[in-house]
Specification:
single chain; 447 residues; alpha+beta; five-stranded antiparallel β-sheet; four-stranded mixed β-sheet; 16 helices; 13 strands; 53% helix; 13% strand
């Protein structure tokens, strides 16, 4: 395979390429749950306190999830990172034991040995690669789904840099994981009503698979860096060098976005509003939608700006966000559900006959943030929305009549992911003002 150094074995820091091997690790999760449940029943029968046993089982399940998904990395770990972002939408009794373990997946995983790191850099930048850096820390500062990050200093300019190195075998492993997901989508397709889950999964798979080529990521990141250069609120690092499996960009100092939960409400609200502003500003400012809204990609810089990294997953929107999106949101906010339903049907969101009144009851909570001057994103609100949309039989089975068109796949993911993160941060902010600033077709309500 192009760009794959076959001299680097997947063991000890690489990713297993074997479908059987990766599947065997993933099956550890349900088997482990079953085994622990059986052991738990035994402990209860022996007189152990039921609440203590249940709490212990949850803690051990969370630890195993971190270990298995972290070791596999690739598409499996991306699944774990998605879970960590959406935990705010889960009922508290389900989310609590997993919250801390899942959050660790946002920016941490078992690292590969320094010998593997140096082998990848030698393969990508040549035997003289050490001369590119006046300093290079062999210990990773962060490890994610398909690569890990090291800190160094760019010799040519003395600039602190982040060196992202891809795990050996990442491309094959990611292809294996995504193939498995697409096969699962084919099996599930008859159960999803009008949702074209096969087309949706195909679109997401294609975008995700682009992440293994750091040359594509570097081009997207530099496009964003140029588009936001000098911006008072956002900072995207410049790229210094890139190959298929290694990438060097300017280092950004800052705390993870999730640390804002410990800040006073006013500062937390400002940061949360800036976070959602960036998600909408990308298409408007530089024709790119950052497709991975989990908090590990956002840094609170010392100067107050929001630093943004990891542009591997993007939607290219040279004309900005679709105008129809703003027009439909305006109609929904104003209560014109006949016209809003017709607009959703034209865009491909409606796959069956739907009464506008039923659609209003089902979707209106998602439009709440845009319908008021300020909105408070809370865990309880997010949990209620998750409960509603998980009730497939409720609302006259309307969930089976809705679809997510492939062109909206990443937009939909970012919209829901952004809401989940705002709920994690407990943000109260003027969401509608962000739409007025960046969303084509949106008409602010009269004040």
């Amino acid at each position: 395979m192009e760009g794959m150094d076959r001299s680097l074995p997947p063991e000890s820091g690489g990713l297993s390429r074997s479908t059987i091997g990766r599947g065997a690790k993933l099956i550890q999760l349900p088997l482990g749950v079953a085994g622990r449940k059986a052991a738990g029943w035994g402990r209860k029968l022996a007189g152990a306190d039921a609440a203590t046993v249940d709490s212990d089982l949850a803690d051990r399940a969370a630890a195993q999830m971190f270990q298995v998904l972290g070791e596999l990395k690739g598409g499996a770990m991306k699944f774990g990172q998605a879970l960590s972002m959406f935990e705010a939408m889960l009922p508290e009794e389900q989310a609590a034991p997993f919250r801390e373990e899942l959050r660790r997946l946002q920016d941490a995983a078992p690292p590969m040995p320094s010998s593997k790191v140096q082998a990848v850099l030698r393969a990508e930048f040549g035997p003289q690669w050490p001369k590119l850096f006046s300093e290079f820390d062999v210990r990773p500062t962060a490890a994610a789904s398909i690569g890990q990050v090291h800190r160094g200093v760019w010799a040519a300019s003395g600039t602190p840099v982040a060196i992202k190195v891809q795990y050996p075998g990442a491309e094959d492993a990611l292809r294996t994981d995504l193939l498995a997901i697409r096969r699962l989508a084919s099996v599930m397709s008859p159960l999803t009503g009008g949702v074209d889950i096969v087309a949706l999964t195909r679109e997401l798979s294609e975008r995700i698979f682009e992440e293994v080529d750091y040359r594509l990521e570097s081009a997207s990141q530099q496009q964003a860096a140029d588009g936001f250069r000098g911006h008072p609120d956002f900072l995207v690092p410049d790229v210094r060098a890139a190959s298929r499996r290694a990438m060097v960009s300017d280092w950004i100092d800052g705390d993870k976005l999730i640390t804002a939960t410990d800040l006073p409400p006013a500062e937390r609200n400002r940061i949360g509003l800036n976070y959602v502003r960036f998600l909408f500003a990308g298409p408007h400012q530089c024709g790119l939608l950052h497709g991975d809204p989990h908090p590990g990609n956002y840094l609170l810089c010392p100067d107050g700006r929001l630093g943004v990294v990891d542009f591997g997953l993007v939607a290219r929107l040279p004309g900005g966000l679709p105008r129809a999106m703003g027009e439909i949101l305006t109609l929904a906010r104003d209560g014109d559900w006949e016209a809003a339903t017709a607009g959703l049907a034209r865009e491909g969101f409606v796959a069956g006959d739907i009464e506008p009144a039923s659609l209003l009851r089902y979707l209106s909570p998602f439009f709440e943030p845009a319908a008021v001057p300020t909105f408070h994103f809370t865990r309880s609100w997010a949990q209620e929305q998750f409960r509603r949309v998980s009730d497939l039989e409720g609302y006259d089975g309307i969930a089976f009549k809705l679809n997510v068109p492939p062109v909206y796949a990443l937009i939909h993911r970012v919209w829901l992911g952004g809401i989940a993160v705002l709920a994690q941060l407990d943000v109260q902010a003027a969401f509608a003002d962000v739409l007025a600033e960046f969303l084509p077709g949106w008409e602010p309500a009269p004040r």
